[in-house]
From TrEMBL:
Residues 1-203 are annotated as: Phosphopantothenoylcysteine decarboxylase. GO terms for cellular component: phosphopantothenoylcysteine decarboxylase complex. It comes from Janibacter cremeus. One of its GO terms (biological process) is pantothenate catabolic process. Pathway: Cofactor biosynthesis; coenzyme A biosynthesis; CoA from (R)-pantothenate: step 3/5; Cofactor biosynthesis; coenzyme A biosynthesis; CoA from (R)-pantothenate: step 2/5. This is Coenzyme A biosynthesis bifunctional protein CoaBC. Its cofactor is FMN; Mg(2+). Its EC number is 4.1.1.36, 6.3.2.5. Residues 199-421 form the DNA/pantothenate metabolism flavoprotein C-terminal domain. One of its GO terms (molecular function) is metal ion binding. Catalyzes two sequential steps in the biosynthesis of coenzyme A. In the first step cysteine is conjugated to 4'-phosphopantothenate to form 4-phosphopantothenoylcysteine. In the second step the latter compound is decarboxylated to form 4'-phosphopantotheine. The lineage of its organism: Bacteria, Bacillati, Actinomycetota, Actinomycetes, Micrococcales. Binds 1 FMN per subunit. In the C-terminal section; belongs to the PPC synthetase family. In the N-terminal section; belongs to the HFCD (homo-oligomeric flavin containing Cys decarboxylase) superfamily. Residues 204-432 are annotated as: Phosphopantothenate--cysteine ligase.
Length: 432
C-alpha cells in the first residue's frame, strides 16, 4: 500500500518517526511529506533514512513530476501526525500553500488526521468547527489523548500513541478488515477517529477513579486506581456519538469537553450519584474501584501516635464496616426493565481459589450484570499503566473476548464493540 505520512510542525513530530516505522515494517511504501515547520523538530535526513525515499516540503522541487498533484493522486492512504491547529484550519478551508496541503486537496483515498496541540487550542470554537467540517467530508479526525503536553501543561491535546494512530489508519483503509488488536474490531478502531458513530442518540453513565474512605481529617483508606481506564471508556463513548456523564471518584486527570463530570469522593457518595442517574441512561459502565470497606467511626481530629515509653509500638485498632455493592444495587433496581444495559468491571489478582477468569465468571454470576470486564491488577499491573489487557464476559455465554495488550483507549473501543453488539436499535437489551 502507498501511504503518505504528513508531519505537522509540533513537538510531537518525533512520534511520527515511530509511526513511520510501523508502516514500513508492515511492508508499506511510505512517502513522508513534512511541513517546513516540522523540519525544525525532525530533520529531512531522519525521514529519508527511515522511509528510504526523498523528502520535500514545497511544490517546486522535481517539478516535472508534478508532485503537488501526483503524490495525493497515487496514495492509498494519507495520515497526518501530528496535525497542528494550523493544519486543521488549512485542511478545513481548502488552502494549499505547501506540498502537504496540496496532497490533502488532491487525495481521493482515506485521510486520517491525528491532532496534537495545547488544550486551549483544541477546545477553541474555531478548531472544533474545523474538526466538524472535516468529519462531515469523510475525513477521520482522531480524538487527541489527554496527558502531559509541552512544558508542565497537561490536558486534552496530546498526540495519541503511534500504535493507536496506526490501528485507526488501517481501519480507515478497510473497515471490514480484521482487528489490529485481539478482540478489537476495525469498527471500534475507526470509531476512535470519529468515522463511526454507533452510539449516536445513546446516553451513557460511566463511573471511574478510586473511592477514598476518611479515617480522620488527613487520612483515608484508598486504592491505586488512577481513573485512566474509566476516563478512556467515557471518551471513547463520546467519540462514538454518545451523551456521556462521568461520575469520577478523586480523578486527577483532565476530562474532554462535552462530557458531564460529576466529582465524588467516597463509596456512599458514588452510590448515591449512580443510583440517582442510572435509570435515565441506555448504558451504565461501572469502572470505578469502589472500596469494599470504610472505617466504622470517623475521628474528628487527627489520630495521634502515642508516646508511651512502656509501649512504643502501640497503634490504634480501626474497626471497618462493609460498603454497599453499587453494581449489585443497580442490577436490583433495574429489575426486569429493558434498560439500562449494565457493564461491570472486576479488578482481580487471582488467588488459591481460582484464576483471574475463574473469579471473574463467579463474580458475573453473583452480580447479575449483562457484561463483566475482567482485568488482572496489582502493583505494576493496570493501575496507572498506559497499556492493559481485559477479558469481556457476557451473561448467558461461555465465550470470552480478549482485548489487548493495548492502550486503554483501544481497549475501551473493544469494550464498546461488545456493548453495541448487545444493544437492540431501540436501546433494549438483547441478552435475555
Amino acid at each position: 500500500m502507498r501511504i503518505v505520512l504528513g508531519v505537522g510542525g509540533g513537538i510531537a513530530a518525533y512520534k511520527a518517526a515511530l509511526l513511520l516505522r510501523l508502516f514500513t515494517e508492515g511492508g508499506h511504501e511510505v512517502t513522508v511529506v513534512p511541513t517546513e515547520a516540522a523540519l525544525h523538530f525532525v530533520g529531512a535526513p531522519t525521514w529519508e533514512a527511515l522511509s528510504g525515499r526523498q523528502v520535500q516540503t514545497d511544490v517546486w522541487s522535481n517539478i516535472t513530476d508534478v508532485p503537488h498533484v501526483r503524490i495525493g493522486q497515487q496514495a492509498d492512504l494519507v495520515v497526518v501526525a501530528p496535525t497542528t491547529a494550523d493544519l486543521l484550519a488549512k485542511a478545513a478551508h481548502g488552502l494549499a500553500g505547501d506540498l502537504l496541503t496540496n496532497v490533502l486537496l488532491t487525495a481521493r483515498c482515506p485521510v486520517v488526521l491525528a491532532p496534537a496541540m495545547h488544550t486551549e487550542m483544541w477546545e477553541h470554537a474555531a478548531t472544533l468547527a474545523n474538526v466538524a467540517t472535516l468529519r462531515e467530508r469523510g475525513v477521520s479526525v482522531i480524538e487527541p489523548a489527554s496527558g502531559r503536553l509541552t512544558g508542565t501543561d497537561t490536558g486534552p491535546g496530546r498526540l495519541p500513541e503511534p500504535e493507536d494512530i496506526h490501528a485507526a489508519a488501517m481501519a480507515a483503509v478497510d473497515c471490514t478488515a480484521g482487528p489490529q488488536f485481539p478482540g478489537v474490531s476495525a469498527r471500534g478502531l475507526a470509531a476512535g477517529s470519529g468515522s463511526v458513530h454507533d452510539l449516536t442518540d445513546r446516553s451513557v453513565l460511566v463511573s471511574t477513579g478510586g473511592t477514598r474512605e476518611p479515617l480522620d481529617p488527613v487520612r483515608y483508606l484508598g486504592n491505586r486506581s488512577s481513573g485512566k481506564q474509566g476516563l478512556a471508556v467515557a471518551e471513547a463513548a463520546a467519540a462514538r456519538g454518545a451523551r456521556v456523564t462521568l461520575v469520577a471518584a478523586n480523578l486527577d486527570l483532565p476530562v474532554a469537553p462535552g462530557i458531564d463530570l460529576v466529582p465524588v469522593e467516597t463509596a456512599l457518595e458514588l452510590q448515591a450519584e449512580m443510583d440517582a442517574r442510572a435509570a435515565g441512561h441506555d448504558v451504565v459502565v461501572m469502572v470505578a474501584a469502589v472500596a469494599d470497606f470504610r472505617p466504622a467511626d470517623y475521628a474528628e481530629a487527627k489520630i495521634k501516635k502515642t508516646h508511651d515509653p512502656a509501649d512504643p509500638d502501640a497503634a490504634p485498632s480501626i474497626a471497618l464496616v462493609r460498603n454497599p455493592d453499587v453494581l449489585a444495587g443497580l442490577v436490583t433496581a433495574r429489575g426486569d426493565a429493558a434498560a439500562p444495559l449494565l457493564v461491570g468491571f472486576a479488578a482481580e489478582t487471582g488467588d488459591a481459589t481460582g484464576s483471574v477468569l475463574d473469579l471473574g465468571r463467579a463474580k458475573l454470576a453473583r452480580k447479575g450484570c449483562d457484561l463483566l470486564v475482567v482485568n488482572e491488577v496489582g502493583e505494576g499491573l493496570t493501575f496507572g499503566a498506559e497499556d492493559t489487557t481485559v477479558h469481556v464476559l457476557t451473561r448467558g455465554s461461555d465465550d470470552t473476548v480478549d482485548i489487548g495488550p493495548a492502550s486503554k483507549r483501544v481497549v475501551s473501543d473493544g469494550i464498546w464493540d461488545a456493548v453495541v453488539d448487545c444493544l437492540h436499535p431501540t436501546g433494549r437489551r438483547v441478552l435475555d
